[in-house]
Design brief:
Strands 1-4 form a two-stranded antiparallel ribbon. A two-stranded antiparallel sheet has the order 2-3. It has one domain: Alpha-Beta Plaits (2-Layer Sandwich), CATH 3.30.70.20. By secondary structure, it is α+β, with helices and mostly antiparallel strands. It contains 2 helices and 4 strands; from the N terminus they run βαββαβ. The chain is 15% helix and 25% strand.
């Protein structure tokens, strides 16, 4: 099976509460905290589409979109 390729990392800023779980669980330090304390994709080129950020987000604010 071919490794998925990242198309986009979507973080719904209205839903994000700034808990930092997605940042903590990302194995490649893709996400960082912004000035408002919310997550943002600082290094999307590092993303391996493991989706740990999606799985850990209690607010379902993070979505990994892969290329078809």
């Amino acid at each position: 099976m071919k490794r998925p390729r990242l198309k986009e990392i979507v973080i719904n800023r209205d839903w994000c509460k700034g808990c930092g779980l997605c940042i903590h669980f990302c194995p490649h330090c893709v996400l960082e905290e912004d000035a408002e304390g919310k997550a943002w994709a600082a290094h999307p080129e590092r993303c391996t589409c493991c989706r740990l950020c999606e799985l850990q987000c209690p607010e379902l604010a993070t979505e990994i979109i892969i290329e078809e």
